[in-house]
Each structure stands twice: as structure tokens, then as C-alpha cells.
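Field reference: sequence -> structure
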Amino acid sequence: MLTRKQHELLMFIHERLKESGIPPSFDEMKEALDLASKSGIHRLITALEERGFIRRLPNRARALEVLRLPDSIAPGLNAARKFSPSVIQGSLGQGSGLGRQIKPASSRMPSAGNDDDVVSAVSIPVMGRIAAGVPIDAIQHQTHSISVPPDMIMGGEHYALEVKGDSMIEAGIFDGDTVIIRNANTASPGEIIVALVDDEEATLKRFRRKGASIALEAANPAYETRIFGPDRVKVQGKLVGLIRRY
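Structure field:
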């Protein structure tokens, strides 16, 4: 059961995506729901995500996918969407470009009927560049796909990012490498993650906790560990593999 505001926001996002393919900005959502601040929008989006109505996309900052609508509005539609979801990407900020429609980056394993001697590679999308240094606008849209061994991505949704910077060199991650990321929104201390800071910038760092705060730790003594309040950092995925070309 949704609250009135949750229902209003879900339908506003749905209608805007239907009309233009681009999600509304936080300011537009705030004005449409007559809220005093954008923090209220953040809370509503989190509630809708927890209830399975929307999903924040792991491959682009500030983008939303509507997973389903209330059964009272679209009976039967939600079951069909479960098997063939469509993802509409677009910036929630002002001045965003046109959205794109792609399928989610899910791992596709070879079927059991394949010849045991022939292991099919799995294709996953490369979603742009990620900073291993000072955070940059990184995760934007699919640029191309790469093939990886199936044993590198055992279960879950995966995507790849090209590394820019040298802050993780002591973890064996160098400028120009391609990292394989498993979609996740939580992490354990010590894991290397894709972190989204302030819903704006993405970076590849080791996840630590400092009391109630979150620390994004570099693997290069030339870079300082950055400390953020827990509400400023979202985990977008965990490092599970790396590809390097010589």
C-alpha cells in the first residue's frame, strides 16, 4: 500500500517517462508534489524503491526505472513487465539530454545444453568511465559491450567501467583498465566499490566506516581518504573482476 504522496510521485515519474523518455528533475518533482525541500523527494524515492515500484539505475547517476504500477491502475501489466522490463535512462538534473532505452545489464550464462568443451563468453555493457582519483561524472550510458568469461560473473547483474586515474594502483587497478562490477547497493568494509557521491559523481574506492560516517579510501598514498556522511554516499556496485590490455 502506497501513501498518497508516494502514489503521486510514482505516477508523475511514470507519466513524464511516457511523454518524453526523460525522468523529471528533483526540482520538478518537488514542485509537482508541493514539497518544501528535495529531501522529501529523496525519502519518497527510497520508499518506492524499497517497495519494488522503482529502481535507481546502477549505471548512471540520477536515473530511475519504473518497475511496476499499483495493481489498481495496471492489473496484469506488472507480471508482464517482470519478464521483459524496459529501462529508460535519463538525467534527473536540469538540461539533461535525450533518454535511451536499453535492457538491464543482466548476466547471461550458457545453457545447460551447450557442449561442455565450448564455454560461451558473456557479453556485458561498458557504461563509460569511472574515476580512480578525484570523483568525476562517470557512469553515463552504454558505450559498447565486452565479452568476459562466464566464471567471472557468477549470478546477479553486471556492467563494466573503464578506469581513469591512478588512485587505486596499490590494489592493482591502473589507468586504462576495465573493471567488472556486480550491481549492489550495500558493501562490507574493505570491499572496492563504485560509490555515488551526492547523487552527482562516481568514483572507485575501498569502502570503510568511520563511526557513523563513510570513508572512501584510495590505494595510493598520494590521495587522501575522503569522509562523508552516510546519506551522501550510495553504493552502486562491487568490484568482481578486471580486464587489462597490453
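Note: Residues 75-119 have pLDDT under 50 and may be disordered.
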